[in-house]
Amino acid sequence: MGNLDAWGGPLSQHWKDDHEALQKKILESERAMGMKPVLPAFTGHVPPSFKDKFPSAKIKKTNWGAGFNDVYILDPADPMFESIGKTFIEAQTKEYGTDHLYSADTFNENLPPTNDSTYLNDISKKVFESMAGADPKAIWVMQGWMFHYQADFWKPVQIQALLNAVPNDHMIMLDLYSESHPVWNRTNAYYGKPWIWNMLHNFGGNISMWGRMSSVAENPSAALHDKTSGKMLGIGLTPEGIEQNPALYQLMLENVWQDEPINLSEWLKTYAHQRYRAENDDINKAWKILSETVYNGGFGEGGPESIIVARPTTNAWADRVRTKLDYNPKDLLNAWELFVKSIPQLQNSDGFQYDLVDITRQVLANYATPIHQKWVLAYLQHDIVSYDKYSKQFIDLMDDMDELLSTRKDFLLGKWIAEARNCGADEKEKDLYELNARDIVTLWGDKESELHEYSNRQWAGLIKGFYKPRWEQFFAYMKQKIQNGDRMETNVFEKEIKDWEWKWVNAHDPYPSEPSGNLIETVNHLYQKYAAQIANN
């Protein structure tokens, strides 16, 4: 996005060569299927060494504000800008070919130095001219995310200045977050530019059951038929992470085949039948409940998370870990009961097994909050007996979740790490890839990272090997404070846990990469253990 140069490297020549070959295979396959790949263009983002090699160049230093190093952007007014952009596309085309579509997002989460409309118009014109200089058929594909994310800066005057510098038939806008925060309907459909309605949905690869099914079922066709929607060109998916919430993605892609609203209640029945290869009234009732609970989400960036994945705290939520639900968790308990009731008929369906584990996981993840509140209250009341009882329940819940998630390949930390290591050519490279694989799902940077937990996952291995030990250390620390009558010093514990987290990220202890345990027996056991507790909570 132009706001981050590097972290966790350097990458080897093997990685570069391997990925160059992979990119060419991907492009060949895409083009063989009639797809038109979008390749990058020059946005002005240059390496830090550029300022040393070209000291007279007009360079702006900027920082994302998330604890990473500064990045440098060449001013479009600099005479080098257009020549570099042209040379870049010429070199890229020679190596990869072109379909005349180029992505460029100079200011994605990276504010311009001024809101002056003339400046914004000029910089947009220069970026496009650097494309067109190498390819007269160039079409600029730009994300509209910044107009939502930094809406205080991007007012109508600024947006128009940026867009109007490019001919309408040489730009396509991606309305990146249409299902929750559309921009097209407050910009006169991007002031005449062709644009695409997108479902973003997922942030950071988090796996919570969540989404806005009614929006996805109705709004793409509503936009298509809206007289004010201008040059709506198509629909798309723009998630930050996949391999979660399969029903929502299949629902979105259903819009490819029709231009009218999807009848959600009927679609869900068809979906369940297709996925499980059987008709089941209880499952149809369960999916109706899911559409009214987890899939009737609010407008936040991604789904609610479980407090278990948070850096330990007495608060009911934490930075990057939002725990407020958009529904009554006891309503989800009813759907879980119906899934469990359907086991005898549907247990041999792989899709059913995945969904059964996922809904069980979600119910238990939600239940962590009331248990959390009980041990916090016990701590505040200096009730060490209740504190021990509920903190143990909290730890036991994590153990149970880890055992559940161990039964499916989809929820294994070990699989994630093994796949990363398998890309390495030697042990040094394998270790580097493992470090990055561990880091991205935990700290998302060094031990002082402001983005820790951004990409948290409820996975077997990650719960038992990372989240659980963090909480155990916190509980021991707090118990000592109760016993000694001392005041809890949050900053002291946080400093110690950051050191522990960083050691874990750099470690190489093994985690299972294959599922284990009996999925059906585990779910039945957990239902018997927790259903009544949750209902009576």
Give the key terms.
three-stranded antiparallel β-sheet, 9 strands, 20 helices, 2 domains, Four Helix Bundle (Hemerythrin (Met), subunit A), 7% strand, TIM Barrel, 537 residues, alpha/beta
Can you summarize this structure?
The protein is α/β, with parallel strands linked by helices and 537 residues long. It is 51% helix and 7% strand.
Per CATH, what is the topology of the largest domain?
TIM Barrel
Instruction: Write down the oligomeric state.
Output: single chain
Question: What is the helix tally?
Answer: 20
Radius of gyration over C-alpha positions, nearest whole angstrom: 25 Å
Mean of all residue-level pLDDT scores? 95
Give the uncertain stretches in residue-range form: none
Let me know the largest β-sheet: 6 strands, parallel
Query: Quick one: overall form?
Result: globular
Fourth-level CATH superfamily of the largest domain: Glycosidases
End-to-end Cα distance? 45 Å
Tell me the strand percentage band: 5-15%
